[in-house]
């Protein structure tokens, strides 16, 4: 089992500090708190509800993490597809298992090319409508708050060099999303559920 490390990438470190540490109980950073009162007024933040502010913060944070991951690894790192800008995900053994495609739905594909899930704010939903887990700080967690997969930067040791990706299969229609559960306490432990099995739970009935 691989050990995850703490990182503070240049792009994200400007806006956040220790909240990127996997397993930390600190909630996702509120990037809107960095706005001055005048900037918040001009941006219309006062018109948003607390839920809308939370959704905005989650979306901004997710984009920052993805942009940093893509830019940092596009040249030489193993966790990003140089051509497509995909965000590669590795299991507890440091093996490439899935990737987040750079598309409008941020579809999650297995390495075999099978579409299994997609991102909705900081939630991971299967195409069958099931809520699978959460994306937080470059890692995906299950409903127990345990790690399922993470980007290469989150590992203390080098991950395995991934094999070539298979061609992407057609994405199925999205089923009606079930309500997402309350977020658990996020831990530094790996889930007992293998990453591939976790993602495949987003397919079928």
Secondary structure layout plus pairing:
Layout: H1 10-13, H2 37-42, H3 50-73, E1 87-90, E2 96-100, E3 107-110, E4 115-120, E5 123-126, E6 131-136, E7 139-141, E8 147-150, H4 195-200
Antiparallel strand pairs: 1-2, 2-3, 3-4, 4-5, 5-6, 6-7, 7-8
Overview of this structure, please?
The protein is α+β, with helices and mostly antiparallel strands. The protein has four helices and eight strands. Strands 1-2-3-4-5-6-7-8 form an eight-stranded antiparallel sheet.
Describe the structure concisely for a colleague:
With 205 residues, the chain is an alpha+beta fold. The protein is 20% helix and 18% strand.
Average pLDDT confidence is 79
Report the C-alpha radius of gyration, rounded.
Answer: 17 Å
Order of helices and strands: HHHEEEEEEEEH
Count of domains: 1
With helices defined by DSSP (H or I, 4 residues minimum), what is the helix count? 4
DSSP helix fraction: 10-25%
Question: Distance between termini?
Answer: 31 Å
The largest beta-sheet arranges its strands as: 1-2-3-4-5-6-7-8
Portion of residues in beta strands equals 15-25%
Helix/strand class: alpha+beta
* Biggest sheet details: 8 strands, antiparallel
Number of extended strands: 8
The gross shape turns out to be globular
Uncertain regions spanning at least 5 consecutive residues: 6-26, 69-80
